[in-house]
Design goal:
This protein has 87 residues and is of the alpha+beta class. Helices cover 49% and strands 14% of the residues.
Length: 87
């Protein structure tokens, strides 16, 4: 004669083992993700490339060459200063 174990008891054990496996899987996933994020933070940011600075002929302010207005070989901080200087 074998031991008689209630069917509900066996189902409860199976469900509890499945829940435990799912929780372990979620824990492993969370630890893996946080380890990846920490590794990404350690990478230094790429330095920005330096841009040439130019001086406005009219007011003398320094600004990046890409933002300056070029007219007749001279740099200006804006179109208004270019017009004022030429008049």
């Amino acid at each position: 004669m074998g031991l008689l174990v209630p069917r509900d008891f066996l189902e409860t054990r199976i469900v509890s083992k499945l829940v435990l496996l799912v929780l372990i899987g979620v824990l492993v996933y969370v630890v893996y993700r946080s380890a990846n994020r920490i590794g990404q933070r350690d990478v230094p940011a790429q330095p920005k490339s330096a841009e040439d600075m130019v001086r406005c002929v009219h007011c003398g302010v320094n600004l990046p060459r890409s933002e300056a207005v070029l007219s007749k070989g001279a740099f200006f901080c804006g179109d208004e200063h270019r017009r004022l200087h030429q008049s």
